[in-house]
């Protein structure tokens, strides 16, 4: 983009209406939009033209395309009403400060008002004053852009930040899980299930639910963060609502969550699958878990916990991980202790005794459980999340001849 020629073109357009503006000022605005914020040149020209149009003559110097940021930069806007491509002035409370993901970013966090919340990013070269969590601020002439479909407020060298002395009331708007969309959200939910942490930096992950459905959540290890208790109701404020492969999840690392009274009848998401167990994965059978309060991670054969290291005073448990094929789709299934005992006919005490008195130890438990369920036709009921079936009940069924034929045809087609 030739900033000088574009600035000249905008200057001429404004001059035709009897106004004058410094071309260097126009060029600086263009450079900021294109180089700092990655705005397309045509969109940058349109935005600057409309901004100056509103500044000098609200009745119409603009290019007719609308959408310029100038008006929004002068007027106070509600966070829920701002959109990518605008220059805005907002007033809100900083409810969370995040670790900057890059040295080019001085500060990142979430700012909220009574209508909603949005993530903000302050560039290092902007030399903007650091904002404090829990404080209200007036942010003038910031730019709203979009990242992965989510609006963000960008603080640049032309942005003014002023603290607001008065502590205003802030009551976040709580929505149902079914109403969530990418960005920032607040919900009242029940912890349905906890999963094993898939990463050493992960404090907890699992499933939250309310009357409208369920959603996956994750909490990363940060100072002051605590795990949620399964079966307990919480009100969660200002969580990051993220989207991947068309599914939403909640990142609670930015959120404030408080235990709530009462209960929630979690509905939606129940799945019934009739099919054949075609694979039992390693790590099934009798396992050892970390005894540290709140951990419960599965230990290695050497009794090693990835978080709390060697744990000689482990706790035994039962589980089965495997694949369930219904003839059309293969599910990754997870069965916890009570379902395992019901399906295999072997309870925890029997499994422990077998492991302690057999030369193969825990491997013998795995082999017997595998023989008991592999290839069996079953009906499993549970919750499907990201192609994972979290089974709450599983029963053996008699396979109908039509089902058997369909599975054979599927196997023959795969071959």
What report would you give on this structure?
With 415 residues, the chain is of the alpha+beta class. It folds into four domains: 3-68, no CATH class; 71-164, OB fold (Dihydrolipoamide Acetyltransferase, E2P) (Beta Barrel); 177-260, Nucleic acid-binding proteins (OB fold (Dihydrolipoamide Acetyltransferase, E2P), Beta Barrel); 270-414, OB fold (Dihydrolipoamide Acetyltransferase, E2P). It has eight helices and 21 strands. The protein has helices at 3-15, 23-36, 41-56, 70-74, 337-344, 348-357, 362-373, 401-414; strands spanning 76-77, 87-98, 105-113, 116-123, 136-147, 150-155, 160-164, 183-195, 202-210, 213-220, 233-244, 247-251, 256-260, 270-280, 285-289, 304-305, 309-310, 315-325, 330-335, 377-385, 388-396. The strands form four sheets. A five-stranded mixed barrel has the order 2-3-4-6-5. A five-stranded mixed beta barrel has the order 8-9-10-12-11. A hairpin with a 6-residue loop joins β2 (87-98) and β3. α1 packs across α2 (23-36) and α2 (23-36) crosses α3 (41-56). The longest helix has 16 residues, at 41-56. The chain is elongated and about 95 Å long. The relative contact order is 0.07. Residues 58-72 have low confidence and may be disordered.
